Amino acid sequence: MLYVACEGESTEPDYLEYLNERFGDGDDRKRRSFKIQPVFRKNGMTPSGVVEAARKVAREDEAWALFDRDQWDDIPQAIRVAAESKVEVAFSHPSFDLWLLLHFQPFAGAQSGSSGLVVEKLRRAKGADAFKDYDRRGDKNVRGARRDALNSKEGRAVKHARSLVGSCARGDCDPDGARFEPVGRDAGPWSPRMWTARSGHAPDCPILHRDPSTDVWRLLVALGIGEREADASRDENG
Q1: Distance from CA of residue 182 to its chain's centroid?
Q2: pTM of the model as a whole
Q3: How confident is the model at residue 169, as a pLDDT?
């Protein structure tokens, strides 16, 4: 059991339920079974609220906070509390929509917190016909045909997200430095910089400068999803 608190009330919880349905039973290749309990509120939460909700609900269980850059000004505070509480961070810059897009194609170019271009590319991506009306009239669900469109593309999304770490403008960020093993609540103190470096970004790479980026790939790899496919793709491409 792990708890994942979400900034949004629709897209992210829908996606987490998709992971439960698609992968929660494990498989015969030693991927563990799991159950994600999404934690969310009507009208959403701030990043600090996401971290606090994860901390309170999970207690001693594994906890993740999933939130976006958008234009929030409390992200440094959220990161500090996450490090103190050992709540893993799945941060997306500019938004979770980037993670969805990476299932279909790579993406690059700083967006400064704006998701407009990301959403437009998602609507037009090859193989993403189900997303052609995504975010129109507030429709950001990830159910039905949209789940079908994402299915079996997890390795591709992981590969593309890892590439964003490696191409970070900071210059010495490396996805091979990412960490996935759970950290117990009774573990020693972590600084906010070292806590966010679990994503593979360098400790001196400010989290707000990681544009574009998404750490959702690390949640999937921690659950045994996507990394084997991404490894196979890297081998095929040298």
Answers
A1: 16
A2: 0.94
A3: 87
